[in-house]
């Protein structure tokens, strides 16, 4: 509840997650054979989400190697900058 009164601190926390995700590699398993964008993924396969690579993708974040909490202040104004916490902590069923 206090975070709404501290927008810069909230933005600072988001940019820290961007630079150093809590989980740089997130392991998952496919429970049944599936096809995704033309790729066949066999049931029982293990795969990893590389969240560190995703948080440094220049097509998602402008200047991903520059420390700019200000760009995350725009999240409150519905900007095109994605919240790094959305995929740092949320990847399917657990």
By DSSP, the count of extended strands is 4
Order of helices and strands: HEEEEHHH
Taken from the alpha-carbon principal axes, the silhouette is elongated
Radius of gyration: 16 Å
Account of the protein in words:
This protein has 94 residues and is of the alpha+beta class. It contains four helices and four strands; from the N terminus they run αββββααα. The protein has helices at residues 7-19, 51-55, 70-73, 85-88; strands at 25-29, 34-36, 39-41, 46-50. Strands 1-4 form a two-stranded antiparallel sheet. It has a two-stranded antiparallel ribbon with strand order 2-3. A hairpin with a 2-residue loop joins strand 2 and strand 3 (39-41). The longest helix is centred in the N-terminal third of the chain and has 13 residues, at 7-19. The protein is elongated and about 45 Å long. The mean pLDDT is 79.
